[in-house]
């Protein structure tokens, strides 16, 4: 990476020198702007494109790239206005729809973004537009609709890593595990990595009891998108299974900050705290999970466990009964029952149970 940055800076310096001798060269201005954008020099790139636009005011491509810079710099209003002006001036590129939808997604307006994307006929759109559409449907909770769209799109772009990554993740979230594995295998054959594909493959690695592989996959996802809560949750779980408790606790803190409505993450964080010896924090985490969903047996069973460990047996019995009423096969409730009857009482048994609980059906991180 350092070598690439040095090479990029060297090329930028060389092009700046060329432009001193040929200041009106559109090709040089465009190439320099692209390099500056790639290296994060958005303001410098804007100045190059403004010079180019003075030379060729009707050039739609230059105007589009300036809108791209506004998006990268967070000037969403200016970018939106520029893109709409391009549309009114006759530009019909599907990339405009993509960027307008991206702006709405950045604002959390998934329905508005979806309307823009669905207005594009399939033959005139791009795989990246379909990927944005799938993102919107996923955020809106329409897994069936997203699966329908991705299967349709894969008939046209069967080797697109973005679509294969989405297909694997959507099937995983629909609990179609064999289909998720099929698409994950196809995704893994592609040369491009995507957040969705990495998260699905990482979760499947947890299900396959391979926390080392899961660590690697989730770390790569986080490198691409540091604000991806699901990747942090998976990484924290992999750390926990590898008994890297301090790293797991820190990763779980990031995960619940980014994804505060995810029941499975709160539960798994609570078990991490139990193994780490912080029973008070574990109880807080299990209560947070219950606030989100009072009908999930593992939340009540997990709370029963930590209450027993804190010698609050009457309260534990109530939580245990609620868990078993919801699911007679609830693993954490069975463990709480063993604790109450003193069949299990040592710390090593507790650690082994946590591993069993997390490995069962791929771990609690799958629970939404």
Characteristics:
368 residues, mainly alpha, 21 helices
Q: Secondary structure elements and their pairing?
A:
Blueprint: H1 2-21, H2 26-38, H3 42-55, H4 60-72, H5 76-88, H6 94-106, H7 110-118, H8 127-139, H9 143-154, H10 161-173, H11 177-188, H12 195-207, H13 211-224, H14 229-241, H15 245-258, H16 263-276, H17 279-292, H18 297-309, H19 313-326, H20 331-340, H21 347-359
Molecular structure report:
This protein has 368 residues and is mostly helical. 75% of the residues lie in helices and 0% in strands. The protein has 21 helices and no strands. The protein has helices at 2-21, 26-38, 42-55, 60-72, 76-88, 94-106, 110-118, 127-139, 143-154, 161-173, 177-188, 195-207, 211-224, 229-241, 245-258, 263-276, 279-292, 297-309, 313-326, 331-340, 347-359. α15 (245-258) packs antiparallel against α16 (263-276) and α17 (279-292) packs antiparallel against α18 (297-309). The radius of gyration is 25 Å and the shape is elongated.
Helix content: over 70%
The gross shape turns out to be elongated
How many strand units?
Answer: 0
Determine the structural class based on helices, strands and strand pairing.
Answer: mainly alpha
Instruction: Indicate the low-confidence ranges by residue numbers.
Output: 361-368
Radius of gyration in whole Å, from Cα?
A: 25 Å
Reported for the largest beta sheet, the result is: none
Q: Give the N-to-C terminal Cα separation.
A: 36 Å
Proportion of residues in β-strands = under 5%
Mean pLDDT: 89
The ordered H/E elements are HHHHHHHHHHHHHHHHHHHHH
Tally of individual helices: 21
